[in-house]
């Protein structure tokens, strides 16, 4: 399990309650949380018992979903938030046609890249959009919306 919460993760239980599970919880306990009885079922899986197979698969699926939910529990990083603000500022400058704001965005774009806070790929794509907007070519607004869609902001 993974979470941005210090010391553990919030986990959705089968009864729809949310419990805080601490970091050093053993695998056995995590496995046992996926069983209906609250304890592990150590019997060998009998492939001829289809009902048991379905129940086993359902528990495994619930456990996988719990782990996935816990890993997505954290907030976006400050780096991600700042990059999204930059994209939103660039979009606002493009929509309003504000050349001064557009140039400020260009400076922030280059600064974030030089500080290692913006990937080379994102910088290249945003720089191309910036160049489109600066030259008055059509399409930078649509390109920015496509960029935002390709890199959704984590919830």
Give a summary of the structure in a few sentences.
The protein has 155 residues and is mainly alpha-helical. It is built from 6 helices and 2 strands. Helix 4 runs antiparallel to helix 5 and helix 5 runs antiparallel to helix 6.
Please describe what this structure looks like.
With 155 residues, the protein is mainly α. 59% of the residues lie in helices and 6% in strands. It starts with 7 loop residues before the first strand and ends in a 5-residue tail after the last helix. It has six helices and two strands. It has a two-stranded antiparallel ribbon with strand order 1-2. Helix 3 (78-96) runs antiparallel to helix 6 and helix 5 (120-135) runs antiparallel to helix 6. A hairpin with a 5-residue loop joins strand 1 (8-12) and strand 2. Residues 40-48 have low confidence and may be disordered.
Q: How are helices and strands ordered from N to C?
A: EEHHHHHH
- Strand line-up across the major sheet: 1-2
Category by helix and strand content: mainly alpha
The whole-number mean of residue pLDDT values reads 75
Helix-residue proportion: 55-70%
| Tertiary shape | elongated
Instruction: Report the radius of gyration as a whole number of Å.
Output: 24 Å
First-residue to last-residue Cα separation: 18 Å
Low-confidence stretches: 40-48
β content, as a range?
A: 5-15%
* Biggest sheet features: 2 strands, antiparallel
Number of helices: 6
- Please report the total strand number as a whole number: 2
């Amino acid at each position: 399990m993974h979470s941005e919460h210090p010391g553990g993760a919030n986990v959705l239980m089968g009864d729809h309650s949310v419990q805080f599970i601490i970091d050093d919880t053993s695998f056995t306990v995590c496995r046992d949380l996926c069983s209906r009885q609250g304890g592990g079922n150590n019997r060998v899986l009998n492939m001829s018992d289809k009902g048991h197979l379905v129940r086993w698969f359902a528990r495994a699926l619930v456990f996988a979903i719990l782990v996935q939910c816990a890993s997505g529990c954290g907030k976006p990083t400050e780096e991600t938030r700042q990059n999204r603000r930059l994209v939103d500022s660039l979009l606002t400058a493009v929509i309003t046609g504000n050349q001064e704001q557009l140039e400020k965005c260009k400076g922030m774009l280059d600064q974030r890249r030089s500080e290692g806070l913006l990937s080379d790929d994102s910088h290249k794509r945003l720089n191309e959009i910036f160049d489109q907007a600066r030259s008055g070519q059509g399409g930078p607004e649509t390109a920015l919306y496509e960029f935002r869609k390709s890199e959704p902001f984590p919830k």
